[in-house]
Each structure stands twice: as C-alpha cells, then as structure tokens.
Amino acid sequence: MSGSPAVVMRLVASAYSVAEKAGAIVRKVLHSGELGIVEKTGANDLQTLADRLAQQSICASLSRRFPKITIIGEEELPDEEVQEDLIENGQAEEILQKTCPAEYSGLTEEELVVWVDPLDGTKEYTEASRGLHLPTVAQISLKGSNTSQPHSTALWLLDNVTVLIGIAYGGRAIAGVINQPFYNYQMGAGAVLGRTMWGMPGLGAFGFQLQEVPGDRRIVTTTRSHSNKLVTDCVDAMEPHEVIRVGGAGNKIIQLVEGKASAYVFASPGCKKWDTCAPEAILHAVGGKLTDMHGNGYRYDANVKHMNSAGVLAALRNHEYYVSRVPQSVLQALKSQ
User: Fold this and answer.
1) Is 301 a catalytic residue?
2) Is 120 marked as a binding-site residue?
3) How far apart are CA 275 and CA 264, in angstroms?
4) 219-333: which CATH architecture?
5) What are 72's strand-pairing partners?
6) What is the pLDDT of residue 143?
7) Is the pLDDT of residue 201 over 50?
8) pLDDT at 43 exceeding the cut of 90
C-alpha cells in the first residue's frame, strides 16, 4: 500500500485497539466486585463503573488522535480530566495494511461520526456479577473458568456483554468494531479471554467465522428483558422453529453472523443508535441487512434522534421475508422515522 492509510482506516485501526482496552476495563471492574451500579431510568436501564470508565477510555483515546471527529456515547458523563492510564494509543496494524474501499478513501475527520456503547448488555453484566462469588469472578476475569461449576448459569450471561464502536458517514454505518470481553470463558483456566471483530462494507468482516443457519430453519433472536405483547406477536408472526431470548444488540448480531440465529426481531422502541451502528456495519459487510420494522434503514448523522423508535429487524439472509411477516398492528404502533 502506497502512502499513508486513509483517515477512516486509521480510525478503525484505533477503534480496534481502543475496544480491546475497553474490554479489559470491563473485565477488571467485574474482577474487583465493585460495580458502582446506578439506575438511569429504572431497573432495566443501568450504568456501572465499567460503563463510565470504558466510555471515558474510548472517547478520550479517539478524540486525542482524531480531534475533529464527532463522538456520541451512550453515557452522559461530566466533563472531567481522563486518567492517563485509560488512554489507548495503539492501532491494529493488520487493519492499517488493508486497502480502503475507494468510496471512503478521501473522507476527512469532520465527515465521520462515531457511535459508542461502552458496555452493551449492562443488565446481564450486573446479573452475572451478582450470581458469582468474588473468587470465581477473579478466575473468570484473569484466567477463564469451567462451566461445569455450579455458577455456570451466571456465566452464560457474560456472553451478552459487548463493547460497540460504530463509524458513520453520510448517515450510513460504514465500519464497526465489536469486542466481547468474556469470549472464551468456557475454555477453562489459562484461557485468553476476549475477542474483537470488525467489518466495513466493501472490504469484508474479520475476527469471526461466518456461518449461516440451515436454510430450512428459522431461528429468531429477541430481547431477554424488554419484551411486551407487541414484541411477542411480531416474533410469533415470523413462524420461527426456535426463539432465543438474550441481552445486548451486539450479541444478537453476533448470533446472526455465527449461524446461531436467522433473524433479530425487536418490535419496540428501546434500542439506540449506539446499539446498532457497529453491528449494522459488520452485518452489512457480510451481506446482511438491519432496518426498522417497516424495512427502512436508520440514519446515523450527528443530529439524529438517538432512539430507534420503530424497532429493529435484522437478518443475514432473506431480510425481505421477515419484513413481509411483520403484522399490521406492529407497523401501526411503531412509526417509521
């Protein structure tokens, strides 16, 4: 590759390293046992010390290297000096070596918007913490753990936890980074925890093995803790062979690209732009699609409403089928943006 890497490739390379740093922060806070939980709007909308520190790390690290980008994070935090040990200056060399898609090669910092969810799946993160004794938490966060132990029910909740950094241009999600801080916990003592995946439409997606649900099966993944009649009716209308209820938007998109689910169906407001920007970019990079329940795409401009008020409908394949199955009652209840 001749010359300096394009701005967007340098930003993605930084976001990769920053997401890994944030994942390490998420593990460290769980290990400490001091989560510092605050209710934002209720018991299903929580913030922890990990949310706060991870967002500080992500936003400060990226803005220091790219001072002209717009960064929008989930957590409303006071404007204060960020500790130097939260700053990550690294960049993923393998990303810098890739050729930027031509349509993005000339983009400037000012044209890019970064959407940050520092800890997607906070509810599951806090539940896992409550379900684990501190010595066990120390094992998980530092060495991995064995799911045959009695606390394995709490352990699976950690699958739901991700760090999400999405990059948008012209209102479209054009790159995404997802870190799973506790990936590999099932491998036992000595396992290296965490993985980071990333993707860019026109370039591809990396850090995972793309798999699909067999064509004769429809498996729907949906919310674990924010369900209602509208959500349930819409899931039923898809005529699924199986329904999986888990937490975290990032986790649900990972299920789609790893062949554990066919579609992500959430017929309700609740998801925000920082929940869907990074996952949408990765899904799009492998040929999938994410829209609202009407089949309309979301925009990720800096000035848009944060709420995805018309729900989320995503699929790796056959997105049109799932859109066609959405009941009229859902379409009437959820106004498209």
Assistant:
1) no
2) yes
3) 13
4) 3-Layer(aba) Sandwich (3.40)
5) 115
6) 37
7) yes
8) no
Give dist(CA 15, CA 88) in Å, integer: 9
| Residue 100 DSSP one-character state | P
**Cβ(188)–Cβ(142) below 8 Å:** no
| Nearest CA-CA partner of 253 in 224, 275, 235 | 275
| pLDDT value at residue 270 | 82
Residue with token string 């349930």: 232
Give the number of other Cβ atoms within 10 Å of residue 172's Cβ: 17
pLDDT of residue 142: 39
Domain 7-206 has CATH 3.30.540.10: yes
Options 41, 45, 48, 51, the catalytic residue:
51
Is the model more confident about 20 or about 81? 20
117 is in an annotated binding site: yes
In tens, the pLDDT along 269-310 reads 989 999 999 999 999 999 999 999 999 999 999 999 999 999
Q: Is 320 annotated as a binding residue?
A: no
Long-range contacts, stretch 179-185, CB < 8 angstroms, 24+ apart:
179/19, 179/20, 179/22, 179/23, 180/23, 180/251, 180/254, 181/23, 181/24, 181/26, 181/27, 182/27, 182/140, 182/158, 183/159, 184/144, 185/140, 185/144, 185/145, 185/147, 185/155, 185/158
70 in active site? no
DSSP secondary structure code for residue 290 in this structure: E
| Residue limits of CATH 3.40.190.80 in the chain | 219-333
Residue 316 near residue 256, CB atoms below 8 Å:
yes
Residue ranges of the chain that CATH labels 3.30.540.10:
7-206
85 is in an annotated binding site: no
What is the model's pTM? 0.92
**Residue 275 marked in a binding site:** yes
- Top-confidence range, 63-77, 123-137, 251-265: 251-265
Residue 108 has pLDDT above 60, yes or no: yes
- Joined together, the tokens standing for residue 20 give 């890994």
Residue written as token pair 């209720």: 42
Catalytic residue among 48, 122, 196, 221: 122
